[in-house]
Amino acid sequence: KTTNQIFIKEGILIDHGKKMIAIEVIPLPHTIDVYYLIVFRPARLLMNVVDLPAGETGVLPLTNGVRDAADQRIRQLEKELAQAREDMYDITEDQEVANEELQSANEELLSGSEELQSLNEELETSKEEIQSSNEELTTVNQELYDRNQELNQSHGFTEKIIAVLHEPLVTLDKNFIVKSANLVFYKTFQSTEEDTLHKYLFALQGNGWDNPGLRKVLVDIQKANDQIIEAELDFIFPVIGKRTICVNVQTVHSVGVDDLILLALNDITERRKAERILEVEATGARRDQQSLRTYLMEAPSLFAILKGPEHIYEFANLQYLEFIGRRDIIDKKMIDALPELAGQGFVEIMDQVYKTGKPFIGREMPAVVERIKGKPEACFVNVNFQAIVEETGKAKGVLVFAHDVTELVSGRKILEQNAEMISNLYMNAPAFICTMEGPKHTYNLVNPTYQKLFGSRVLVGKPILEALPELVGQGFDLLLDNVYNTGETFVGVEIPIILARDEGLLPEERYFNFSYQPIYQPDKKISGVLVFGYEVTEQVRGKRLQEESAARFRLLADATPNKIWTADALGAVNYLNKQWYEYTGKSFEELKGSGWESVVHPDDWSFNRAIWRQSVLTGKDFELEHRFLSHDGTYRWHLSRGVGRKLDSGEVTVWIGAHTDIDDQKRKERQKDEFISIASHEMKTPLTSVKGYLQLLELSVDTENAPATLYIKKAALGVNRLQVLIGELLDVSKIQHGKLDYTLTHFNFQEMIDDTVEDMQLSAPNHAILKTGRIDLTIRGDKDRLQQVVINLLSNAIKYSPLATEVSIDVKEVNGEVQVSVKDAGIGIPAQNLKKIFDKYYRVEDHAIQFQGLGIGLFISYEIIQRHQGRLWAESQPGQGSVFIFTIPVQ
Ligand code: ADP
Q1: How far is the CA of 809 from the centre of ligand 1 (A)?
Q2: Which residue, 59, 403, 428, 430, has most beta carbons within 10 Å?
Q3: Mutate to test the pocket of ligand 1, among 844, 845, 876, 885 (most ligand atoms within 8 A of CB)
């Protein structure tokens, strides 16, 4: 746990497998996250193991005899070793170190062999024993090779670790040539790898490192054995200037590589500076506690002492109290005493100082202080936070020194800004500036923008009316006279001036925003006029165009018979055309906002509002029908359409809408409905009697009279069809009045389908009706009505597929519902008509020419299915045929 040290300890570990492992424990200097680097690698030499207790090594001792055999074996081993060395040389070409290592190992082996020889005289050994020692030697050889590789790896690894350490680090060889340096080093000392690596340390950075103190330390470390030398030295670098650096030097031993010198560098310039300041304060304190207090109390800078991890104010001087608006802060936590500091970072910095003990110095830091509650003021402070540390090294609190430099900073900032603004304004700004001197307003200074207004005409040195004769009679000379004589500033907005753009060009009307201001001499007399302004011709023209187009829109809107309105993006109505006022008899004030509700029929209001809100929310256009109250107290039906004008982004900028009076149309429709309803009623009775008489006729005609019987049958068929038609028309009117009755029974659904198909087939000579799917279910519903639906769908399928020879009906159960699909290969329905075919009287236009019908079958069917809690829809492709599908719940 010793910081600032690197030491290497080796140990040997032997496991059951007779593997010897060396362990190195390397504490890493100055790191926060990593303390030790632990390296495991194969043990160096067999010889090292010999000293260990025999039982644990697993190495068998050699015995006497067989010396020749040993000799021979050893020579053979040497040969093998030489061979191995060669191999190794091939493999690790660039590893000189490895080669040297091998060489020395070889020597060691040779001396080992001598030892073995002498041992041999005393010890008897068997062939197996030599064999086993031979194996050991081979192992050693292999391990030597392995170790070399490990060594290289661990070396690289160490370098990597050094590279990421937080402190600047350099390693040197014994001649003080830089072997490596980490990133922090390059950053701190603003140098590059190129300028540093393989260079003489003292020559780096313009000899900035050539410091007698450092030289001494580096010489000393080479004499010292495994020691660490630390020194605080002052350097002067050409780039980063004078720095105080704590240098921590140690030798790093690494087996197989020359010793390296590791330099850990800690730049403590700021710390020392701050400490010196503190020292001065502290000396003062020791001299006279009371006078220090007085001094601090009255010191021109802000000073406070905060205790503990929560920064509780213990002391604050007058300046400090003044600065924060004389609030009562003593014994309060900083954040409670000055709540406006939350989020400004100061408390976090205090935390850091308290935790790490490192001082913090900030210059011209912006801060916001509420001297008066609710009135935050921006200011700038230079701060110096120092940790107060107990003798035990634990932090006790934080000293705050600060200087209010607001005036300095803001004064300087304003000056900087002004200088920039003035030069910008004068030379580059699109604003024009000029000065005129004397009672005749002679041009003195003109900026390029001003000059550009008049092309190449010469202005400077000429009175205004002489330089720009077209101004005569436009009144500007009088305005200038007034400013010159009275000192009153003139400001003009969108003032038209007739000016020629250049010599010889025709004058044109242009617009300007400008001011005339008096220029005063030191004696307070007016010497001239400063003109400042910019041209707004384009804007004025743009505005005019816009106004014109708005006027044109209004004219157009008033000319149409429709009621036109516009609203802003949020849906607030901002324009209504003439027709609105005429129709409602109300003013814009009465109609805008919630006034709208007063003209919409109460029954239509919630629907109307829901649609409108939805559109404003989504930006989608809308269309609806509703009734508007006219000034005569009656409601009339209107068809309303609203369209949002959108930007590319999809955002609506304005809503435009129109309401078309469709009341007459609606009324006609109603009249038609009524007529149909009455007519069908009237026809029903005579038709019933015709049917009765036909039956009587059938009975009274001689059965032998074939033609008569046939005619009667045909007449009966026609009467039947008429009855169905009238029935349907009556159904429509019943549906409209909500009077279509249902008789609910339980019946077998499949049977109903079978019967219907059988009947239908009789009257469809050209189509085969195919049945697919069967269900055996009893359902509750109005059997006749459902049958009516099936008949409708099947007869449509047959009618609209004149060229086909079959239609099909499929029945199945899906998710607890009966599903019936009627399919044909007929003319199909275009997609845009698919939804409307269920509307009353709706017929696809193209079909209506070719096929007869009233457009009510599907309308009635839809109603019946809905009343059974089911759904009815169609899928179709023009030319490919259609499928009509309905479902009803089984329950
Ligand atoms: P009608 O058949 O008497 O016109 P319906 O209400 O039964 O009235 O059908 C409405 C319209 O839907 C028809 O006019 C026709 O245009 C279209 N339509 C209905 N069924 C089919 C079908 N199977 N194939 C093509 N078009 C169909």
Answers
A1: 17
A2: 403
A3: 844
